[in-house]
Design a protein that fits this description.
- The chain is an all-alpha fold and 199 residues long.
- It is 63% helix and 2% strand.
- Helix 3 (44-62) runs parallel beside helix 8 (148-161) and helix 7 (130-142) packs parallel to helix 9.
């Protein structure tokens, strides 16, 4: 997975980012995309690689400027999901629906349909409401590993383009609600000095 880690480092440079995927990484990334396409598995190793791939592809899809090497990778995804061609936002020859289908299509998303819809919104450049961000954050703190690819993609999209105020508040509320109340003892979250610095 080092190639994906290096790919994320290269392109995840914020909303004004324009650094391309280094040419020496492109071939290995394309091979990994094909490798993942051949698996429908709950094997831990496969799920971890899919999660890292989702983080990388989400970052790539929403970056500020698409280079020729970026386009090579995006067009690879497009070719794997031709039925969604030109549906939604197009970046580097790949549509938001093609990217969404590549990441979510292999997962049993029946219990996380709302997260699937939220991810598509993010891929299409839309902002989330506070309630949607809360739903997303709640799933991040509680979902099984097999849903982590779509959640990782959503998290990296937010990281690269920066959260809106509503999104930040929703995610923070989700984080706060995930804290074990027995850990706080008799103190409420709002009473804690740590909470006052972030709420």
């Amino acid at each position: 997975m080092e190639v994906l880690k290096d790919g994320i480092k290269a392109v995840a440079v914020g909303v004004k980012g324009s650094k391309p995927i280094p040419d020496e990484l492109v071939g290995d990334i394309l091979k990994l995309i094909d490798w993942l396409e051949g698996f429908e598995s709950d094997d831990l190793r496969v799920l971890e690689v899919r999660q890292r791939m989702a983080s990388f592809l989400g970052t790539l899809f929403v970056k500020h400027r698409i280079s020729s090497s970026d386009q090579t990778v995006l067009q690879k995804i497009s070719k794997l999901r031709p039925q969604f061609k030109e549906k939604g936002l197009i970046r580097g020859g790949c549509s938001s629906h093609q990217m969404h289908a590549y990441i979510c299509g292999g997962e049993n998303m029946s219990s996380s349909e709302e997260i699937s819809e939220i991810l598509l919104q993010l891929l299409e450049g839309e902002k989330l409401t506070e309630d949607q961000a809360f739903q997303l954050g709640s799933k991040m703190f509680s979902s099984p590993l097999k849903y982590k690819a779509s959640l990782s993609m959503a998290a990296h999209i937010l990281r690269v383009r920066y959260e809106s105020n509503e999104e930040f508040i929703g995610l923070l509320k989700a984080q706060n609600s995930s804290i074990d109340k027995t850990f706080l003892g008799s103190h409420s979250l709002k009473d804690s000095s740590l909470a006052r610095t972030v709420v």
